[in-house]
Amino acid sequence: MKLASINSGRDGELTLVSRDLKRAFSLPGTLQTALDHWPEVSPKLIALSAALDEDKVPNAFPFDSAQCAAPLPRAYQWADGSAYIAHIALVRQARNAEMPPSLWTDPLIYQGGSANFLGPNEDVPIADESWGIDFEAEIAIITDDVPMGVTAEAARAHIKLVMLANDISLRNLIPTELSKGFGFFQSKAWTSFSPVAVTPDELGEAWNGGSIDLPLVTTLNGTEFGRPNARTGMVFDFPRLIAHAARTRPLGAGTVIGSGTVANDDRSVGSSCIVERRAIEVIDSGAAQTPFLKFGDRVRIEMLDAEGRSIFGAIDQAITAYEPK
Amino acid sequence: MKLASINSGRDGELTLVSRDLKRAFSLPGTLQTALDHWPEVSPKLIALSAALDEDKVPNAFPFDSAQCAAPLPRAYQWADGSAYIAHIALVRQARNAEMPPSLWTDPLIYQGGSANFLGPNEDVPIADESWGIDFEAEIAIITDDVPMGVTAEAARAHIKLVMLANDISLRNLIPTELSKGFGFFQSKAWTSFSPVAVTPDELGEAWNGGSIDLPLVTTLNGTEFGRPNARTGMVFDFPRLIAHAARTRPLGAGTVIGSGTVANDDRSVGSSCIVERRAIEVIDSGAAQTPFLKFGDRVRIEMLDAEGRSIFGAIDQAITAYEPK
Fold it and tell me: Going by fewer Cβ within 10 Å, which terminus of chain A is more open, N or C?
């Protein structure tokens, strides 16, 4: 089953999307409301979804990702991990920060802003190009209600939907902000999500209950930037990230958890953010050459299945200059 | 006008409460929905509130804070500042952390979890007493939609409601967590709020558009723990905190912003959290004597107006042992 939120009000209109991303069918209510009542609602959605895939829903309309908000246009929680060791190593090296000693045993997760998620084709408005605008291509999952103290094993059943994310980061604001000790705030301005969120069964054999064995493809202005595999080098899979996030409190239905920037040790696959490439340039040649994003730059993030079909649709969006009204 | 959310489902039932906290009247919908449509909804609420204060609402019922969820039982954003320099100095001293050099010019704010706020009389379930359980008595405000890049001056008009908060902190988890560089997550387990949130006019002359010139009174197991004035020593008032939070992104309606632990330089007024008293004990006598909270301990946080009347009702709650089901 694939679900989207067509732009409408603050929370969008819950929309079923066919497996081939061609047809759609809107329903009363929102995705958050569906997640709030998932045990009762999801069987009905699954039945309708099967009918939509067989083209047996008369009022279906052509699906257009440009009409999409994020699957959850606003959420009660966005907890973003940093589960790929290759990313952690390069980014910390780039800003002369130490590697956390607990790296292999204790997940890194930050509490992100979740009040204004961007849709897959929405512009990313930024006030100042000099802030070091960067993309971060990630996998994200949505949970139902997760009890406090859940084990990683029990957490697997709480992964209800999977999607892609672009976590926009303002690299030049990060060092000052982190030096204050309270984590990211201004430096994590926006997060965008793929047109659809899918139930894990849509991933077939690429899903093992915790991560996706497929490349995540990022292009910048039409040129491929990276295609790392989303399972390789993921130190903590989603159940581990959920268990970490739920150690001292429950997670409410509709909690969104991110993987962090997908990265592999194999440099030939490229990167899912600019700062990694810049770090490699510094290591290789002493100086970063790839600039951060400029107004007008366009980032595309997509994941294809083994047969080359888009699973989530594409995040495809431009950075724009924000002008206060 | 005073607003509460009576326990009902995930988001409570929007409830008007009389100025004297004696009578209440429930309305269709939730506080979040009201905030989403504040310009249209608030005039009607204000008219009804005036009728309730004059005891002219026939279906009014006796107000009971034990039936209250947090005014927003879950929110899309909880951004908690640390605006009182006396608190910052003592807490950092207690954990041997440096004072941020930008302390006087750049607000400290962390992104908090907002998916499961506690009501004023709800138990605070914690799995492990050894985590160093502490309260933090704070002021919090709720905004409407705040545009990105708002100035502090313009931010004043976006403060729609004011309430009290108890930001439960797990002190023994903080050093390890902050050393990882990503800010608080597990160490900020729960936040509770006062029975009612009030429009700023309810604060009368104690409100200057940015802070409250009244003591915030905390008692622990019936003994007064602190009564610092909530304006004294607030380095950044709420408009400054809003402007900081909105520098790189807009804030959605229903954003909750906290002041951080209210603290004064004058030690005779006591403290709004245990870790401050422990820090003072270390400074004075070389060793902390006051223990962190134990299961069964009860914290009460309240603010009285100049005539001794409770403005927000009281947060009054016990710490309890969490047993997984």
Answer: C
Chain B residue with Cα closest to A249: B189
The first and second tokens of residue B306, run together, are: 């100049």
| Residue B168: how many other CB atoms lie within 10 Å | 24
Indicate the SS3 state at residue A226: strand
Per-residue pLDDT tens for B74-103?
Answer: 999 999 999 999 888 888 887 777 787 788
Token pair of B160 as six digits: 């729609």
How far is CA B60 from each of CA A16, B5, B11, B21, B63, rounded to the nearest angstrom?
Answer: 43, 15, 21, 12, 9
Asked whether the beta carbons of residue A79 and residue B109 sit closer than 8 angstroms, the reply is no
Sheet containing strand A217-220, strands side by side: A124-126, A315-321, A298-302, A217-220, A223-226
Q: Which residues pair with A207 in a beta bridge?
A: A212
- Do residue A111 and residue B108 have CB atoms under 8 angstroms apart? no
Asked if A82 contacts B181 with a C-beta cutoff of 8 angstroms, the reply is: no
**The token pair that represents B207 in the structure block:** 């409100």
Percentage of chain A exceeding pLDDT 90 = 89
Query: Among B93, B103, B111, which would you mutate to test the A interface (most chain A Cβ atoms within 10 Å of its Cβ)?
Result: B111
Give how far Cα B192 sits from Cα of A75, B72, B124, B275, Å. Answer: 19, 10, 9, 18
Q: What count of residues does chain A have?
A: 325
Chain A residues in contact with B235 by the CB 8 A cut-off are: none
How far CA B218 is from CA of A72, A192, A212, B209, B304, in Å, comes to 38, 42, 49, 24, 11
Q: How far is CA B319 from the centre of its chain?
A: 17
- β strands within chain A, DSSP E: 2-6, 13-17, 23-26, 61-62, 68-69, 78-81, 109-112, 124-126, 133-134, 137-143, 159-170, 188-193, 197-198, 217-220, 223-226, 256-258, 298-302, 315-321
Q: What are the pLDDT digits (tens) for A43-100?
A: 999 999 999 999 999 999 999 999 999 999 999 999 999 999 988 888 888 777 778 7
B268 secondary structure, DSSP code: G
Neighbours of A224 (CB within 10 A): 12
Other CB atoms within a 10 A radius of the CB of residue B118 amount to 20
- Residue identified by tokens 């809003």 is B242
DSSP per-residue string spanning B292-315? -B-TT-EEEEE-B-TTS-BSS--E
- pLDDT tens per residue, range B233-265: 999 999 999 999 999 999 999 999 999 999 999
Closest Cα in chain A, distance from residue B200 (Å): 24
Given the DSSP bridges, would you call strands B256-258 and B137-143 parallel, antiparallel or unpaired?
antiparallel
Around A193, how many Cα atoms within 13 Å sit in the side-chain half-sphere?
29
Spatial CA neighbour of A32 closest among B10, B37, B257: B10
**3-class SS of residue A97:** coil
